[in-house]
Specification:
Blueprint (H helix, E strand, L loop, with lengths): L7 H22 L10 H35 L8 H24 L1 H7 L28 H5 L4 H16 L11 H6 L3 H7 L17 H6 L22 H18 L3 H9 L17 E2 L6 E4 L6 E4 L6 E2 L14
Helix pairs in contact: 1-6, 3-4, 3-6, 4-10, 10-11
């Protein structure tokens, strides 16, 4: 029997609207010159991406639900929906969310989906709504839960609860919380690090509700310097279609320009910053050593005149032009 669980996202929409308005007003009356703040076009793009994701998710959920229901029917295991099992399912879902989130940062074809959420150079509550339109890459990470007897409807409830929790961590108006909260939970401070583009902050703090997974698996970074938000190569557009697809287009260009099948696979399945090994003969230019200037003594007059023969010009071996850099955004 399908469990009867509430739609937490639907019930949370009034709170989303209220908190966003409060944050906007707070910047109006108490501006912070160092904070990223709000930009009208950027906020509108985030809202458009969020609304679009609702429609596209309905399409992706049809085949995904069919797979989940098939696996659930095949497994003999069943997890009953009780108050304490729901807590355990939330914990397990958050664990698999960590690995899904991490995978979507370190595998480029998955990053092409998730990069949408990082494409804003602002960091506010509307950024939480900037969701991808190609979320069909997420479902495989949760198959173990379905195989262990978790009903797809219970998984959907846990995913919604995780998503709702993460809304409030997209803000600069909340500083660091007391240490026990910062140690266990994902907080605005931890999530600001996750959205930063500095080298020391890249690919850190993947946790959804809990930050303990990052502490356990070596991906945690504390907030020290003020984050710079966005991508290492920002896309400079507010066009929702381009925001949703720009990395897929970059992957296609890189695959077409690749010189081998192994490079093509690397452009798709390696990390967003992956580069192939230099091809033979493409080493850096090598200077060819030349003899030192030759000194000639000529007896002309009472004192010898020292004449220096000009040194030959330095010869440098020409190296082939390097392959163009991949057009990914990070």
């Amino acid at each position: 029997m399908e469990p009867n669980l509430p739609d937490v996202v639907l019930w949370s929409i009034p709170a989303f609207v209220l908190l966003t308005v409060i944050e906007m007003v707070s910047y109006r009356f108490h501006p912070d010159e160092d904070a990223a703040g709000y930009d009208t076009k950027d906020a509108a793009t985030s809202l458009t991406m969020g609304l679009g994701s609702l429609g596209f998710d309905l399409l992706w959920k049809i085949p995904v639900l069919a797979v989940y229901m098939g696996v659930h029917e095949l497994t003999p295991l069943r997890v009953p929906v009780l108050w304490w099992t729901v807590l355990l399912m939330l914990l397990a879902q958050d664990f698999f969310y960590y690995w899904s989130h991490r995978g979507h940062h370190v595998i480029r074809i998955l990053w092409a989906c998730h990069v949408v959420h990082h494409s804003s150079e602002k960091f506010n509550l509307t950024t939480a709504l900037r969701q991808p339109w190609t979320s069909a890459t997420v479902w495989p990470f949760y198959l173990p839960l379905i195989a262990c007897g978790v009903h797809p409807a219970a998984l959907a409830f846990c995913q919604s609860a995780n998503l709702v929790y993460q809304f409030w961590v997209h803000t600069e108006r909340v500083g660091k919380l007391p240490r026990p909260f910062e140690y266990v939970l994902n907080t605005p401070s931890h999530h600001r690090v996750h959205h930063a583009s500095q080298g020391g902050y890249l690919d850190r703090n993947y946790g959804g509700i809990l930050i303990i997974w990052d502490r356990m698996f070596g991906s945690f970074a504390a907030e020290t310097e003020r984050p710079v938000y966005g991508l290492t190569k920002n896309i400079a557009t507010h066009n929702p279609l381009r925001v949703a697809t720009h990395e897929y287009a970059a992957i296609a260009r890189d695959v077409r320009a690749a010189g081998s099948w192994s490079e093509r696979a690397g452009r798709v399945f390696r990390g967003p910053g992956w580069q192939p090994a230099p091809r033979p003969g493409a080493e850096a230019a090598v200077a060819v050593p030349v003899p030192a200037p030759v000194s000639v003594e000529a007896a002309a007059g009472p004192a010898p005149v020292r004449v220096e023969a000009p040194a030959p010009a330095s010869v440098t071996a020409a190296a082939p032009a390097p392959a163009p850099a991949p057009e990914h955004t990070r």
